[in-house]
Amino acid sequence: MSDTRRRVKVYTLNEERQWDDRGTGHVSSSFVERLKGISLLVRAESDGSLLLESKISPNTAYQKQQDTLIVWSEADNYDLALSFQEKAGCDEIWEKICQVQGKDPTLDITQDPIDESEEDHFEEIPETTHLVELPPCELSRLEEIADLVTSVLSSPIRREKLALALMSEGYIKKLLGLFRVCEDLDNREGLHHLYEIVRGVLFLNKAALFEVMFSDDCIMDVVGCLEYDPALVQPKRHREFLTKTAKFKEVIPITDSELRQKIHQTYRVQYIQDIILPTPSVFEENFLSTLTSFIFFNKVEIVSMLQEDEKFLTEVFAQLTDEATEDSKRRELVNFVKEFCAFSQTLQPQNRDAFYKTLANLGILPALEIVMGMDDLQVRAAAIDIFSYLVEFSPSMVREFVMQEPQQTEDDVLLINVVIKQMICDSDPELGGAVQLMGLLRTLIDPENMLASTNKTEKTEFLSFFYKYCMHVLTAPLLANTAHDKNSKDQPESSAKINPVCPDNFQTAQLLALILELLTFCVEHHTYHIKTYIMNKDLLRRVLVLMNSKHTFLALCALRFMRRIIGLKDEYYNRYIIKGNLFEPVINALLDNGTRYNLLNSAIIELFEFIKVEDIKSLIAHIVDNFYTALESIEYVQTFKGLKGRYEQEKDRQSQKLNRYRRDARSLDEEEELWFNDDEDDEDGEAVERRMEDDFSDSYEKFMEAKKGAANGANGANNGKSATIPPASPTVAPNSSSSTVKTVALPATPVVKTALVGLVDYPDDEDEEEEDEEEDQSPRKRPRLSS
């Protein structure tokens, strides 16, 4: 029992003045040696780790709010709160805090916080004045009361004392009684004073006062006081709106009276904060922080109570998907779920995760699948809002459901296809719903939010599913609006000159622009799948038809799609573009634009500039070969001349590369002559042998290079002798009669016939024996192989 009583949630206030949930655990109070004092300890119920260790300081101001909250500040801008599951546990800890500080546990605050600016003046406050003395609650004293309340707002100490005085004397209910009297008497002056009083009491920022003011029997009178703003000629009719216009609809009867009361209270307090009270000035920003916290904790409590009531939520979803449910009833059910999801935004991430898992288990996604396909615009709009909450919180949960849908289901009723159809069929002229749905689709198909998934195959599986079952639905309007005319079949494949039906309707053009934006996203993030789809459907050709549209924004979307494809520098795409002659629509658009200096002109030129700077050789060659004549007259930028220059440079480079291995016989003979002449003065046999070996290796390497790049055979007549190709490392063997080099022919290398070049005669080589030693020919007399 004690465990349940002491079960708490720990909250801290962040910089945005929102409460962050630090975890759930069990609180206790005990002496901590390290802190040298009685401390509050909260240990996590999951693993027993320490969530909070806070010494109960004698000077810390603790506040008890809403019977189950204890709030305090430990340092500048560091506020803490304990939210108890049961009131009894809160009372026990509050008594312990008051015992340590020596305070009265019947009060809801233990200290009067002292502002630094007032520390010097603290001694001036008489010790006997523990509370601010309030004037009697009478009609004649309303002005005096209003002045008092207004005057204390600048002093934290006096605000605290006034709050205690108002609570101790039951003053709030007396004031509200005077309001009824003033209204009956139509006493406008008194009503204006009461406006100032009630507004000032709200700015005291005390939860204990809020509990009284926002109770069922007081809140409408509080709203009534706030109707009589002195700055207004006529009072506002807020009570009339809350009681007559704003109707509380129980789509499913709520049996829990506490829950119903909490929902009413939260709605009315939210109305006071958002509608009635003026926007606070810079100096008043923190005056209503407790009011914000009051609403926040109420919403958390409402969501928790509804979430725990499984019978209630089960009935909601059962009626939502029941075909027999009336349209008006279904509209109320969808709006309830939407409001429920909106409230859940106040939950912390771990609690929100549990909340959406509860909705998923109850069948929220199948229900949305049915509801989003209905004709009722209000129902569809609410369903889209619910779907956006789900996608933004957990795209993986939606993807998992989509992939688990039965395969026998028709493509049209798959959830994502229902979403795409809603996007396509949006009746709003500005396509507000379509833009929202397009953003949700992009979130679902974004690989970036698939990476953190525990299921490593999610990316592959989902993208395969999407391109198989959904992509054709997404691109259907695009393909329908860029259809070929009847004669297009007779045209060659490379021709892009078709007579399409370009959309002149602005709404259709907007829709196609949204679809192109999504496809451009796919090009950037889906490499394999989108490439296959573009190639199979010849999608780029169809997209470029939109370059003819009278809507420039649509032509720019089509151009952006092509620019993303070229930006990938993928040769598969480049070959596809060249084969389809897909630059033609772009260049036609540039030429049709004439000399107008506009966004379309700049975007097209940037496309060609990118190709030039990145030196995409295949595209440069295609553009210059096919379109340079049309583009050479454009001289206000150097882009096209630069393309031509790149083209010429590449052409020269290729030409030089070929010529390097295609030299004629005469130039080769001259080189050989020089080579032989360099060796004429070398008379020594051994030196000749060494030189011969080195030169032969060099000449052989040159020959092998020449052989790879040159054509078979050589110019000149063959004298009947064939030369065998020596090995890479010829074996040199000395002979007693003469120096010869024995060569071994490589069987895998074909014999190359070549012309013998003129030999240089040497004095010691004139013997006729050389004619009989053809196979033992000296390397110095061996003919060099030419190509």
Automatic annotation (TrEMBL):
Entry-linked Gene3D superfamilies: Leucine-rich Repeat Variant, Pleckstrin-homology domain (PH domain)/Phosphotyrosine-binding domain (PTB)
Polar residues composition bias: residue spans: 732-742
Top-rank lineage group of the source organism: Eukaryota
Region described as Disordered: spans on this chain: 669-696, 710-787
Listed Basic and acidic residues bias regions: 687-696
MF (Gene Ontology): protein phosphatase activator activity
Function statement: Regulatory subunit of serine/threonine-protein phosphatase 4.
Name of the protein: Serine/threonine-protein phosphatase 4 regulatory subunit 3
Organism expressing this protein natively: Austrofundulus limnaeus
Gene coding for it: ppp4r3b
